[in-house]
Amino acid sequence: MKKPDKAIFDDGFKLPLIDQFYTVQGEGFHMGKAAYFIRIGGCDIGCSWCDTKFSWNFMIDELIDIKSIVENVLINNATTVVVTGGEPSLYNLGPLCELLKKNSIGTFVETSGAYHLRGQWDWICLSPKKQNPPKKEIYSKASELKVIISNSDDLIWAEKNATKVDSSCKLYLQPEWSKYELIIPEIVEYVKLNQKWQVSLQSHKFMHIP
Description:
Blueprint: H1 6-11, E1 14-15, E2 17-24, E3 34-40, E4 64-65, H2 66-75, E5 80-84, H3 94-102, E6 106-111, E7 123-126, E8 144-149, H4 153-162, E9 170-175, H5 180-193, E10 197-199, H6 203-207
Parallel strand pairs: 3-5, 5-6, 6-7, 7-8, 8-9, 9-10
Antiparallel strand pairs: 1-4, 2-3
């Protein structure tokens, strides 16, 4: 997939927004809390099980001004924004965070950590991927480590990453959705034996919400 001009990555005042919606966080530490989601297009990580492959496309027809994005957040009276993708760390999110902070909006991000993350963040959910591992710098900044589990080998990957985050970082194992029924018993037993971990579920899929 052809990436856009580098200026799009570095400017940050306009972003390749492909979706935005006000909903309830479905995963991890903040599960069940209201949040405004901003989904940015473009991803070169290429997870085979990704359930938002439409977000991989870099060839976005129109870039959206961040002022317009923040206006929609305020219209919905949201107090927290979750930036997701795609892969958010591909872009300069500093200007977006600054504008959100000026309006007293909490800034959360979900990232693989594969690239240098820019912006001021209240919460960083790191979801590392084997095929494009995180930058070393992101581990000490992660508030939450969420590892997607589709087979037993992924538990080894989870433990490898857990050794790199700070002791205050929350640790989650999340079953890959298409293999939920197959893998959840193993995850449950693993958490029972390794109590530093918690189970994260994609509860929004059970609730049939975005």
